[in-house]
Amino acid sequence: AQRVTQPEKLLSVFKGAPVELKCNYSYSGSPELFWYVQYSRQRLQLLLRHISRESIKGFTADLNKGETSFHLKKPFAQEEDSAMYYCALGEYNFNKFYFGSGTKLNVKP
Amino acid sequence: DAGVTQSPTHLIKTRGQQVTLRCSPISGHKSVSWYQQVLGQGPQFIFQYYEKEERGRGNFPDRFSARQFPNYSSELNVNALLLGDSALYLCASSLGSRDQPQHFGDGTRLSIL
Description:
Chain A is mainly β. Chain A has strands spanning about 5, 10-15, 20, 25, 30-40, 45-50, 60, 70-75, 85-90, 95-100, 105-109. In chain A, strands 2, 5, 6, 9, 10 and 11 form a 6-stranded mixed sheet that branches. A 3-stranded antiparallel sheet of chain A has the order 3-8-7, with no helix packed on it. A two-stranded antiparallel ribbon of chain A has the order 1-4. In chain A, a hairpin with a 6-residue loop joins strand 5 and strand 6. Chain A starts with a strand and ends with a strand. Chain B has strands at about 5, 10-15, 20-25, 30-35, 45-50, 55, 65-70, 75-80, 85-95, 105, 110. In chain B, the strands form 2 sheets. In chain B, strands 2, 4, 5, 6, 9, 10 and 11 form a 7-stranded mixed sheet that branches. In chain B, strands 1-3-8-7 form a 4-stranded antiparallel sheet, with no helix packed on it. The interface of A and B includes residues 34, 96, 97 and 102 of A.
């Protein structure tokens, strides 16, 4: 069963516009949720995790257990935000880890 | 620290052969996970090892196996290679607890002819 769903393969916005990358999950326990980012020609790296409730590079993500969502948001997109973004879920005992299929964010000048 | 290192970077094999991929974790990290990433998809979890023991396994056939050594490095073995095994194989290391982030290597690109 698909644990993590990212419905958009590609999201294009203009610089300065708000951006929201959607992530929905399916898990009956208490999930650990993460956003990973991969910039061009770089390694996959952690952007943020729900447990720390932090804002990284202006991005935030709130866990909504009712809607089983963990959408990534930024109020004003920058060109350097263009990258591939993956939502990921870790199971309770961290025995397994699931990634979504990713959303490519393209921020146009 | 060089981060997670994987070898080789690229590999070409033919159907039916066997392959071994290697991963060295970040110093101090005791957990290593392996992922398969097919073009256009997100990474798919194959294995997680912690303190040299398998702690988790994804939905992959028994042709896939792995092990972790006392120095926490790891090997992923794939037997009887199929065309569909062509992918980028990623290794990630972490401290091991569920809320800890994983740090990824650059991956090994495996092509099956």
